Queue: 2 jobs
Job 1
Amino acid sequence: MKRSLIQLLAALSCLTLLLTACGKDQATASISAQPVKTFQWKLVTSWPKNFPGLGLGPEKFAQYVNEMSAGRLTIKVYGAGELVPGFEVFDAISQGTVQMGHSGAYYWKGKMPAAPIFSAIPFGMTATEFNAWLHYGGGLALWQELYKPFGVVPMAGGNSGAQFAGWFKKEINSIDDLKGLKMRIPGLGGEVLKRAGAIPVTLTGGEIFSSLQSGAIDASEWVGPYNDLAFGFYQAADYYYSSVWHETGTNLEFIINEKALNELPKDLQKIVEVAAKAVNEDMLDEYNARNNQALQTLINQHQVQVREFPKDVLVALKGYTQEVIAEQVAADPTFAKIWQSYSEFLQSMRQYNDLTLKAYFENR
Amino acid sequence: MKRSLIQLLAALSCLTLLLTACGKDQATASISAQPVKTFQWKLVTSWPKNFPGLGLGPEKFAQYVNEMSAGRLTIKVYGAGELVPGFEVFDAISQGTVQMGHSGAYYWKGKMPAAPIFSAIPFGMTATEFNAWLHYGGGLALWQELYKPFGVVPMAGGNSGAQFAGWFKKEINSIDDLKGLKMRIPGLGGEVLKRAGAIPVTLTGGEIFSSLQSGAIDASEWVGPYNDLAFGFYQAADYYYSSVWHETGTNLEFIINEKALNELPKDLQKIVEVAAKAVNEDMLDEYNARNNQALQTLINQHQVQVREFPKDVLVALKGYTQEVIAEQVAADPTFAKIWQSYSEFLQSMRQYNDLTLKAYFENR
């Protein structure tokens, strides 16, 4: 009885103390009153762990989120194959095996023919044009709608900028030189090359070097000097073509399991959204700064020969691109709908940039 | 005595209860145990309140911070003149009258001759080139060092992209047409025009329209079609010159009182930093998307005549720019030090973009 009396008194007084204490800092207590719930997320990627550019983006994202949330949401990043193979990232997010991922939309074109529009379209928008379309031209809403049936929420996850045409074991002097060429190239760029008589092959980044070296493939695109130097492709192919055509400003993606995102409190949801936005520019900054530096290393230290496709090769590839897109538009109403928005914006941005950036590049 | 016994028992039991309760959620309690402190900041700007682009950037920043911090840091945004005149923003931050501001570094060139490098240099970097230099080329560290003696911390605060040459009451057919021209133009662009015989004038955005209309000035640059349409300049001048030369990718700034920033806990400091990074891209996205739309409105609804400077006018302006910069380098060791970093990076990015973006703009 004595014990229960003490407990009763204690409980009552404790309540009084709490009320008194609360009265003092009422405005702030309403924030701290709920018990703090913490969340641990796994983030799987399609890149080797800590790979320059592509792989550092999700690491920086995790760091931003951890620090902004003061540890309430911690995110652990996994390289391709550590938890989930590189090309199975989307399914893992959709099934809720892991909460989020970092990848490229064109890897999911088998599942959704329109997906490549959200990573790279041959002769498409540059990085800044794409970001403008995504965030102020209706692009993001269309992307969200595309992934919605899979319970996956997409956000822009960085941009590599304009990519080089790639590494070739022989010179390309005419469109006929592409005939029979086995080339690693994903997305619609591969479809375009097929029409030129080449044989497009899909490989993850980590598989390219050995395939080039063994002769299993004759050519490969990857990203640009910064990443290409890191993979050492100059040791496996003699000719490096700079001509921008197939990936003119490649958008990466953060993809999140919708249910996991909705389970976060509002402030953590916003932290995830804003961290992704910050990483989106950060990756482009990194690519722009490192690419030229790496190009100088490739040229001066590794005697790489940088080439440009002859004009008529680019004209032919552009023609095939129009054919490929027309077929996609005819075959898939979702592709047609998204393409209309994308191509109208591209047309408008092209006029504007011809007057501004293009004119400036010529005059400066 | 009875009362003090109860209090003693209560205190003891309360402690027990707290210890028991704490034991259960130890990991999380360490986060919530401290009383939550809230912060209210004022953010003053050099723009009219809610002005498209420039003025919406700080509004979006405040919204991000408020939501990510769940109200622990609330930021109220003020237009130019509401609390502080547009050209006194830096001093107000430095003196700690307010905690932070949003402005353009070239407004402080009287105080720091090198400041314009962090907003716009004639024939300088584009928006993406500048961001790459700032975040991966050493630019931000130099900027922080420049503002440090004033107790002010700078962060990139959005970019307007390449700006139009501006509005003119008469046609510019040769460099001689600039002689005697009274033109509103800030920063080093004004110094360059002075060498061409023009009379540069400094006015805040809100003062331009009436000055143009009254004939107090003959010409004015502002930003580009999106902002220029909003101010109705087409009603006050007949000729709109698109030629990008004086502001090739203008960087805005968030500036923060160092002491106020250091008083925030680490998580709120990171929230401020990441929100600024997210707004930095967001503003460029908005400008890119809205500028072309506004240009069409200016041309089609308001019969604005868009012109380009003759090539020899641009060549002459480029020559004067080299003179102005050489003088700044000779006069101010800080300008010289920052210019070396800027110009080396510009040179390197120019080579890279000639091979990629410039070639692509020509081929697509």
Job 2
Amino acid sequence: MKSDRPVVGRGAKVRAAVHAATLAELVDKGYAAFSVDAVAQRAGVHKTTVYRRWKDRESLIVDAVAEHMAMDIPDPDTGTVEADLRALARSLAHSFTTPAGQAILAAMFTGAAHLPEIAEARRHVFHDRLRRAEPVVTRAVARGELPAGTDPAELLKTLAARIYLDLLITGDPVDEALADKAARIALAAAHAGALGHA
Amino acid sequence: MKSDRPVVGRGAKVRAAVHAATLAELVDKGYAAFSVDAVAQRAGVHKTTVYRRWKDRESLIVDAVAEHMAMDIPDPDTGTVEADLRALARSLAHSFTTPAGQAILAAMFTGAAHLPEIAEARRHVFHDRLRRAEPVVTRAVARGELPAGTDPAELLKTLAARIYLDLLITGDPVDEALADKAARIALAAAHAGALGHA
């Protein structure tokens, strides 16, 4: 008998359950005490089901983090680049204040920071978020709000950079005021033509 | 018999020797294998001499790193803010490419990143470097090259942020091209009045 349900159904459900359990374990236990056993138990699947899809705990963490961070990106389209960039910056700043965001930050920048696969994950997650946010800049250039030749990636890096500085180095509050400042700086640099294609 | 040598002489020499040995040990062995014993041996002093001045290995590392990073800051005064900011940005980028810079980076952002005293050291070292570089901006405002009310710390944070982003996240080359870009972005934002006092 043929089922009407899509064949990917069960695989996608297992994947989602394991991802959710991975983040929950990171939040509850932290990176050092993280174990695939506990994830499997929490997700209600057998450990071998996890190892069939992810080769080790690092791959599992990286995959769950990348998926979580990617879903987190809004695609604001308010009609003005100022408001769109503010929304992106606030969403980035906010993403590190949630329990999952805090746990991810701790894993990516302290607990597991020495692992090459985590350095690679930091790059991967960052570029994925960048790519998803680029339409905001592309649309602004098309509307004539930003100089032709403005490089979307360069603008978004400038915006993110100011937020990451306080997050990783100064320890100053990562809040809406910082987000708005980061958006203002990126916009000013773009208007001045300092963020053109190299 | 009175000596003509300043009384701080020996203390300062021991301090300098222990600092140099600390950086050399970090470069050779890395943070995880770092030991006060090895530092004392390398500096040619007794272990108790080290412990009399620094309460533990973390204090010693933080102190040596802070001193090294502080000495590393130039005070460019070329007559134009463009050239001064470029010099500051290039010096910051360059500081992470030396063996000592690489070892410090590894200790501060990976090996010891989970320790509260290292997070505090990151803040301390950053603010110390910021403070030393502020005259570049103050002079530019006085010369009328930058808007009155430009906040030196905000300008320098914008400059540093773009460099730290590639250093800590994207993994893209931290070179003169990046430094010049960071200086250009900070300058454009300042000219646009986006870096004023809050």
